[in-house]
Design a protein that fits this description.
Layout: H1 2-7, H2 12-44, H3 48-85, H4 88-115, H5 117-124, H6 128-141, H7 144-160, H8 165-187, H9 197-221, H10 230-233, H11 238-271, H12 274-290, H13 292-310, H14 314-347, H15 354-385, H16 391-416, H17 421-427, H18 429-445, E1 463-464, E2 470-471
Antiparallel strand pairs: 1-2
Length: 472
């Protein structure tokens, strides 16, 4: 602990690099979380059943975006290390594998969601009204998954190369349009039809299509290193694919087992009552606003540590990792106190019953207690273990903690003991405690640090110069 405290007195360049990488990511996720909050707030004006229906329908996107996150995280491990090494050719190869995989996954999920929305919704709820509203939303919004599959990989790749300002710009423009269209299409303002939850879905599709156009325009218009010609992204060979998935597949599995666990939590909350799932959706929308710092620093730490490993500065990478294990705990104490204080004020902005407001306030205060340790586990898994290529251990840790501890707790506490949801949240804290303890032991063993840039012959690649010509 003394060593870790000393490590906080870092050289000035460290914190400058952290802010330059994490700041745009933090702001981008604040905008995304703000949209989620505003979406929930607007839909909440229609009623708690609408909140429940849209919230459960968005579990499909939650699963899909975490699939993209798993692929993107796997790619970013390589990209960050290759960027530190200066190997643009292999960066394009990693992007190509990620783009192919994410688009195929998005196409499958979109097809099922558009053709069988009622069947999908019946997995999450038994309330006919919730199922009907959720299905009408899901059938439309599913098209946006295709757009996101591409924009997400380009955004992740640019962040791994310390170019987070471009994803920030595309997200800001997209979310501005989304909020405006939500207002027009949900409530039927200025001559537009009042479409309710279907209007929210259509607004999402349009804004995510716009986000894709903007991120591609910036990537190629600014001649970034991610701007390869199309054939370059698909020039990877079998050896590269094998090494990519040896590292990335555990990350994808990690995200899937975690997200499926979170879906089980939501299913349990829905079985506990419509007012419970409505409260859970509101709580998560509010909590995400306070969690953006961790999303920024967690991803920023992965980039900084990965860059140092790629440039073979291993001692510096270890020193950075120690800092990123202490910083989130200290920051989390402040965030938790702030969220607990603001809980009564924020929840009253929603048009929901007084009972749901009280449940949500208590839930937020319990979640505030857990923020420091959740921040630690995010940085352990995403920032440290994954950046060092220790993805198999991360997957085993997530699988054990979610399905060995979290899911049994939520099933027993929510459906057998019938505890209030805020007590269920408190008991779920044991999952985070286990994850933190096991992750710290792994970090101290030193086995997490692996240089993935070794022994891979880079495939043929080109980048686009400022004149528009290909550079071999």
């Amino acid at each position: 602990m003394v060593t870790m405290l000393k490590d906080l007195k870092a050289e000035r360049g460290f914190y400058r690099a952290l802010v330059s990488v994490s700041g745009p990511i933090m702001l981008q996720n604040f905008l995304i979380s703000s949209l989620s909050f505003i979406d929930t707030l607007m839909i909440g004006q229609l009623g708690s059943v609408q909140i429940a229906g849209v919230g459960l329908a968005n579990q499909v996107f939650f699963l899909t975006i975490l699939f993209f996150f798993g692929i993107g995280s796997g790619a970013s491990i390589f990209i960050a290390q290759y960027w530190g090494k200066g190997d643009t050719a292999s960066i394009h190869a990693a992007m190509g594998v990620a783009l192919t995989t994410s688009f195929i996954g998005a196409a499958a999920v979109s097809t099922v969601s558009m053709l069988l929305p009622h069947h999908v919704m019946s997995i999450f709820s038994t309330d006919p009204q919730v199922i009907e509203l959720g299905a009408s939303y899901l059938r439309i919004v599913a098209l946006s998954y295709l757009f996101t599959s591409i924009s997400f990989i380009f955004s992740t790749s640019l962040r791994s190369m310390r170019m987070a300002k471009y994803p920030l710009v595309s997200t800001a423009c997209s979310l501005t349009v989304n909020v405006l269209l939500n207002y027009l299409l949900i409530f039927g303002k200025f001559g537009f039809p009042a479409m309710g939850v279907r209007g929210a879905a259509l607004a999402t599709v349009i804004s995510r299509g716009l986000e894709l156009v903007i991120i591609l325009s910036l990537t190629y218009g600014k001649r970034t290193p991610a701007a390869g010609v199309l054939r370059v992204f698909f020039s990877y060979d079998r050896k590269f694919v094998k090494k990519f998935f040896r590292t990335a597949f555990p990350v994808i599995c990690n995200e899937l087992v975690w997200s499926l666990g979170m879906v089980v939590y939501k299913i349990v909350y829905a079985r506990m009552g419509t007012e419970v799932i409505a409260s859970a959706n509101v709580s998560e929308a509010i909590q995400s606003l306070f969690f953006v710092i961790y999303i920024g620093t967690g991803n920023g730490s992965a980039v900084l540590i990965g860059n140092k490993i790629g440039s073979r500065e291993y001692d510096t990478a270890r020193r950075y990792a120690r800092r990123f294990l202490l910083l989130p705990v200290l920051v989390g104490l402040f965030i938790g106190i702030l969220m607990a204080i603001c809980a009564p004020l924020v929840t009253r902005a929603f048009n929901i019953e007084q009972e749901i407001i009280q449940i949500t306030i208590r839930s937020l205060r319990v979640l505030a207690l857990l923020i420091p340790i959740r921040g630690l586990t995010i940085h352990l898994i995403i920032g440290v273990l994954r950046s060092g290529g220790d993805t198999t251990f991360s997957f085993i840790l997530e699988l054990t903690s979610v399905w060995g501890i979290g899911v049994p707790i939520v099933l027993f506490a929510g459906l057998v003991l019938n505890l209030p949801i805020y007590y269920v949240y408190l008991l779920l804290g044991f999952e985070e405690v286990f994850k933190a303890a096991a992750g710290i032991l792994r970090f101290r063993s030193g086995k997490w640090l692996n240089d993935l840039t070794e022994d891979i012959p880079p495939p043929e690649s080109q980048v686009i110069s400022a004149s528009g010509t290909e550079i071999p």
